[in-house]
Design a protein that fits this description.
By secondary structure, this protein is mainly α. 45% of the residues lie in helices and 0% in strands. It has a domain of 65 residues.
């Protein structure tokens, strides 16, 4: 009996992690309704949250040092859009924070990108994620 309780890996998930659904129903609409994100999109959400915090001095300085504002050589209408410059990579560097973060941030809609507060940004980001990724 003692060896069974020390196994460390339960055979059933805890009741808190189970989502009640009808049988043979796809889970994505339920996750959308609950405002939960799939793991891949949760990582993107966290990465964009770090970018927002970095640009607004709410994150460590070393993260801000990895992000650079895009400054075109010619005066363009997009100069005031707050885009970040994306460094070029030749190998697996596109997974680095300094490349992935500006790429994702530049792909956000303008109203999400220019949110005035952290709570507004989180809300807009979750709405954008549910529309873009889960639809």
């Amino acid at each position: 009996m003692a060896t069974e309780s020390c196994s460390g890996s339960p055979t059933k998930p805890s009741t808190g992690s189970r989502v009640p659904t009808r049988t043979k129903q796809h889970i994505t609409p339920t996750l959308t309704h609950l405002h939960w994100l799939l793991v891949k999109y949760h990582i993107i959400y966290k990465l964009l949250l770090l970018v927002y915090k970095s640009l607004h001095n709410l994150a460590p300085q070393y993260l801000l040092d990895l992000l650079h504002q895009h400054t075109p050589s010619v005066n363009l209408r997009s100069s005031d859009s707050g885009l970040l410059s994306v460094p070029s990579t030749k190998t697996f560097g596109d997974r680095a924070f300094s490349v992935a973060a500006p790429t994702l941030c530049n792909s956000l809609p303008t109203d999400t990108h220019h949110a005035t507060s952290l709570d507004t940004f989180k809300s807009a980001l979750k709405d954008t994620a549910s529309l873009l990724f889960l639809s």
